Structures are given as C-alpha cells and as structure tokens.
Amino acid sequence: VVLFGASGHLARNKVLPALFHIFRDASVPDSFFVLGFGRTPLSDTAFCGQIRTALGAEAGSDAAREFLARCGYCTGSYHDPASFKELGSRLAQMHSRWATGGRTLFHLAVPPDLFGPIATNLGKAGLASAPKSAPFRRLMVEKPFGRDLASAKRLNAELLRHFRDEDIFRIDHYLGKNTVQNILVFRFANAVFEPVWNRRYIDHVQLSFSETEGVEFRPGFFDSTGLIRDVLQNHMLQLLCLVAMEPPDSFDPERIRDRKFQLLRSLRIRDPAADILRGRYSAGSLDGHALQPYLEEPGVRPDSTAETWFAAKVYSDNPRWRGVPFFLRGGKRLDRREASISVVFKRPSYCMLCRSDESPAPNTLSFLIQPEQAVSLSFQAKVPGSKMCFAPLKMEFDYDRAFGAHPRTDYETLLLDGMNGDQSLFWRKDGVEAAWRLLESSLALWDSLPADSRHSALLTYPAGSIGPGEMDAFIRKEGRDWI
Ligand code: BG6
Questions:
Q1: 110 alpha carbon to ligand 1 midpoint, in Å?
Q2: Which of 11, 295, 308, 412 has the least CB density, counted as fewest CB within 10 Å?
Q3: Total-model pTM
Q4: How confident is the model over 90-131, as pLDDT tens digits?
Q5: Which residues are catalytic?
C-alpha cells in the first residue's frame, strides 16, 4: 500500500490504524508493506514514530513491531515528477524486499485538488494502471470527488487517462460501516418489508447526520467545502440509495451500482432555492463548555459563507417513490453525535379505537448507524388496565447485544475490499456524477449569490443545540415533524 498524505490527519487517525489491524488479524498476507508519501520531510524512523503514536496502547505489541518493520516513507512534492521517480525506485525495492509480486494499492488521503496531479504523475512515472495480466495497480481516492458536476467530470476524465475504471476506488467511508451494509440485508434478505417498501405504505423518510465536533483539524478544507459538499453529496446520498434503490438482481458490485445510479438519476430537488436550507453555528455551549462561533474558529476566513448545517427535501420520480419526500439534514457542532435513518409509515386509514380527530402515531422503522448500532420498529401496544388505551413502544435490535464482537471498522473493510478488487462499496463514475447533478442547480444558485446575500440567507444556531429553529417550519409545511 502506498499512502499519499501519510503524515496527515486522516492517515494517522483512520488509514494507518486500519492497515495495522488488518495486518494484525492476518487478513493480509505476509508479503505486505506500507510506503508513506508526503510533503512533510520525515525519515522512516520518524514516520514509524508517528504510526506508534497513532496505534496508542497497541504500539508495543509483537504485531506492531512486525508491522512497523514493513513501513517506510518518501518525502516529495505531489506536483513534481522527480518525486514520483524516486517513489518508483523505493517502491521497486520494497516490492522485492517483501515479495509482493508488485501488486500495489495507492491510497490518496489528500485534499481533492491533489487527486488529478497525483494520478498524472503516477502515470508519467509508469506507476499507473498495469495491463490486465500484470499485478494490479489500484487507485483509492477520498471524497469529495470534485466540487460540482463539471469538476467531477474533469476529475473522472483525468483519473481515467491513467487508471482503468475497474482500478479506481472512489471512497465513501459510510459504505464501510457495518450498520450501513445491514440496510441491504434488512431490505432484501427479509420477506416482510419489501411488499410495504413503497409510496402506498411509506409516508416519508428522514435521514440525519449530526456531530458535536466543529471543523477541528481541517478548517481550510471545510471552509472551502461546506457541509453540503462534505457530507450531503456523498454519505447522505449513499444512505438514501441504500434505503430507496430497487433490489439488484444479484449482489454483483456492478448490479448494485447500477441500481444506485438509477435511483440517483430519479432524484429531484423541486425548488433549488427553497428546498435546501443552510445554517452556521454561532457561540454556544455543550456539556458546560463554551463553544466559539464558526467564524471565530482558527483557520476559518472571517468572511466565510460555508454552511455547517443543512436540511434538504428530495423526491424520486420513480414509480415506487413518486410523491414521497425524503428529508435530509446534517450539522456540525450540534448537541449529539448520531447518524440515523427513519422510515415513517402512513398512519392507519381507519382506527376504530380512536376518536374521529385522533389517529395513532405512525409506525417508524429506524436504522441507527452510529454511535448506537441498532434497528428499531415503533408500534402501538395496549396499556395495561381496563380501558382500551394504547401507547407507542419500540422493538429493538442492538448490534452489540446481538453479536457481541465488534465488526471491522469502515476503513478496514474498504482497504481490504480495495486489495481484493471488490468495488461494491465504492462510488462508480456515473453515480458520483449523478449525485452532483442532483445538487447542481442549488449549488450554482448559492454560489452565484453576492456574499452579503449568502450571509443573510445562512440560518444561525447556537453551537451545541439541535440546529436552527427554522428547521421545524421547513418540515411542518409538509405536514410532518422531525423525529
Ligand atoms: C467525513 C467528513 O467524510 O465524515 C467529515 O469529511 C465528517 O466532516 C466525517 O466529520 C464523519 O465520519 P464519521 O465516520 O465520524 O461519522
């Protein structure tokens, strides 16, 4: 594995620990090494020191010692072909030292504007896609993939000049989460849900993403990206695909990605101005700690108009979902960390137990993705006593309680899939472009507004709260409430 951005935050926090874990668990063969590449000048020893810090308590184990013996580092510039020549020589030595047969996975844990230059320089150095018969050379890129439709198309074209499509792995780490993959099993391996999984029985669907963190270690990246491009265009639309796509005719990666593409193509934002709200946090507090406003976070431009919160309403034009709204909302610096999907069923059309002006709460099926990993179904039950009263209850399946063992982390799953050449959990070219196409008018409209109009259109919410007050009116105007 060649890891670009090896001294960066993502590499330290997610990728290197994941690589160590799959090595420790013997999920990769002994013929394995990690070659880091980055701008920060580091010796092999200093790089291993960083990895040790990232591994924390595990750093002293025998497995960690064996892993560290397989790690090296190259200092270089992403834009300089000479650095890639040097990388090529070092890579050849490592391949021969560890008898890998030359199979290489390039992982790009770098900002998106570097994907193109790195792929091009790999191509120039003769390190890009190899002929089919030769040992594989694969490229794994992080998200966001571009910043709009035009740039995503350009990037696809640029990468495809040097790598075959089957060798490009466009990451969405949400797809590596066990609870996210469970959505497919839940829908397609159980017979009871599919018959009611449509506009006749489902009233609407809510997808929500909330974090307590602010911009933390990457203010520069976030400030030029905003939460819609950072999370809605990718993680949330992938969740929506899993909930709403048609059943694939097999679990073949291409069949799954065909279905996602069809769904993405059917999605519409009816009013690009009114159906997406944007917000930004002001000063607030969480657990007794004062939190500063977004505009005062270190590294954020004082005149920034990046959104740290959004709510969006999306429809699908296909026969299964016509008329069913999908509400998506996400925010940073909210009161909790949680990602969830709630499928809200229609209320019974007639309930002989209710007064004429009443109806029982709708059944809601919730997928809790994190931090709790669970699936629950709410239903009505009779309250004990002589009167015929009912109250909503929940049936719940909890991952930890049911299975005990902790599943692999998202990055462990994705890195192994990349090594095994399994594309099921990665974005395909047409899918990523369809996701940008859905948001295109709204993004273009927003970007075209003068800065002062964007400032005044951003709703504010106190850091540590549940989000802007206006979000209630947004959903109530559709006759629904947030879960
Ligand atoms: C990343 C976003 O893709 O996902 C971050 O860039 C976000 O802004 C993160 O914090 C959330 O991932 P997770 O797995 O912690 O929910």
A1: 15
A2: 295
A3: 0.95
A4: 999 999 999 999 999 999 999 999 999 999 999 999 999 877
A5: 235
